[in-house]
Each structure stands twice: as C-alpha cells, then as structure tokens.
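pasting Autophagy-related protein 3 for the record, 353 residues
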Amino acid sequence: MNILHSTLSTWRDRLAPVSRTSTFRTTGQITPEEFVLAGDYLVYKFPTWAWADASSPAKRVSYLPPGKQFLVTRGVPCHRRLNENFAGDAGHEDEIVRDMLSGADADDGDGWLRTGGGRDLAEKQAERIKDVRTVDESGNMGEREDDEEDIPDMEDDDDDEEAIIREPAGKSTTQPIRTYNLYITYSNFYRTPRLYLSGYLSPSEPLPPHLMMEDIVGDYKDKTVTLEDFPWFDGGLKMASVHPCRHASVMKTLLDRADAALKIRRDKLKQAHSAAEANRINSERGLEGLVDETRGLSLNEQQGHAAGGDEWEVLQHDEEDQVAIRVDQYLVVFLKFIASVTPGIEHDFTMGV
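structre below
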C-alpha cells in the first residue's frame, strides 16, 4: 500500500499544473519560484542547510532548477524517544497550541499539537516528595536518604563478580542518540514545502523506517506521517514524510497571526508617550518574532534619536502596508511548525540557535 501511495503521490506532483501566480498571503501556498527564493534565504541565514540535486537527471522535476531540487541538512541529533519519559510530560494528554489572538471558540484546526501538556499537578508533587533531604543546624543540605531496603550490606562487597547478573545489552535506560537527515522538497500538487526524514543509529547504520515513527508526535504519526520512497533518489530509499495536505492552512494561520501581532505592536508604538515605553514595546516579540532575529530585516523600521532622547521609532506611512513575514522567510516559519511534529529532533541545531 505504501509503495502504491508513494508512486501516486510522485506522479501527482509531477503532472499537476505549475502555478506561477503568487497567493502567498491569501492561501499560504507558494510557487516554485518562491520556494527557491525561500530556500536561498534559509541557506544564507543558516548554513547547515544546503541545496542539493537529484541523484540522476531523470529524477529531477522540471519546475525547479538543477542543483536546487531540494534542501537538506545532515546529522541533526535526536536524543530521546517520544515515550512516557519524553520531556517529563510526554505520554500524557496533548494540548493544542494557540495564542492570544484566538478566541475562546477557536477550532482545534487553528493551532497545532504540543506533546505532553496536560500532566496533573498532584503527580508532580508526589514525585517531589521522594526528593526530600535533611538540613543540619548550620543549614547544610544532606545527601538524599536511601530507602531502608536499599541500604547496602557490607558483606555484598565480597560478592563473586561472576555471580552478578548483569543487565543485557540494549536494555539500558540511557537511550542512544539518533541522528537525522532532513529534506525539504516542494509539493507541486499542494504548492507547499514537504519534509522527509531519514534516521541513523550510527553514521554507518540506517534507522529502520518503522522506528522513525518513535520520533513523531502520536497524533501526526497516526494521521499525516507516512513511510515513502524519496522521489529524488534512485534505489527507493524509504523515509518518513509529513504529508503536506494541511501545510497551507497552518502556514496561512501563522502568517495572519504574525501580521495581527505586528499591527498591535505598531498601534502601541503610535500611542507611546516616551522613548522608554517605545523601547519596551519594541522588546516585546509577538508572533512576528517567529523568524528568529529577522524581524528587523523585514520591517525596515527607522529610528530617530533626538539630542535629549525624547524621540523614538518613527513609522513611515508606507510601512503600514508591510507584512511581518516575507515570502523569502517562509521556510523559517515552516520549520518552526515542523518542530512541533518532531519535538525530539533538535531543529534549532539546524538554525544555529
């Protein structure tokens, strides 16, 4: 079934009509030219990412230039699996992430999942009780007290080494570090980026595809993540892929909220009565701060400083029509969203954070 789905998906992308009209602001979709523009920006800002070509000319798509068929970053660490121990809270109730711009009646589709958000406070308190230590009259903290049954017997020091039952290999609670190669491609059918993941247990030992699902948030793993052949490689290399069917709607929501947050900030700046108040407002990063430190690059804001320090940022008339996130910054925001799908993979490692 996966082979059939992968083949149909590849041919659907290659045969779909190519859009040359930008609908970035209205639909969250981008054209192939905008994908290249956003890829160039990602590579420029974060050199761990690079453009790559298909393994052979036959694997190339015509709507992207040779040498820029997809983006790749290699060796991204993944330290922990998404089980009940992940982040201390995984395995418990997930929650939908929203922001203050969403109303009380907002649909779950307006946000995205964050794993392990609903752990009961009483559970945490019960765990803390186990970490009680003693304090002497001088205020010095003592060592953790072992349970009575855990106090060692002095005779144990003479145990025969050969009689000790050791933990079998592979049963250690310390989880081995996995690494991932991440690939961003362009889906011509959905007109959005698409992420593929290829995992490794060691530099020379690929991670079996079904084990990659251990690093995907459960709700996505069950609905939108599939195992497919990577269309740009010969030989049928199987990877996990986040299906792009909802990428455009999620990106549109994020872009709209970033614009709304920027408008609120500008309105506050207009009403500011002092330089100190304006500086405080400027330091508050709303959703337009999704693009890391690129906000200053996108707004082209000018600042005036009088001799007495009474003037602050001046908003030019044409800046009212500017947006919080440009189309060339699209992939940076896209990766912030993807990080919620695979929270165990250190996406910030790829972005020099």
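The chain has a mean pLDDT of 72.
Residues 246 and 330 are 15 Å apart (CA to CA).
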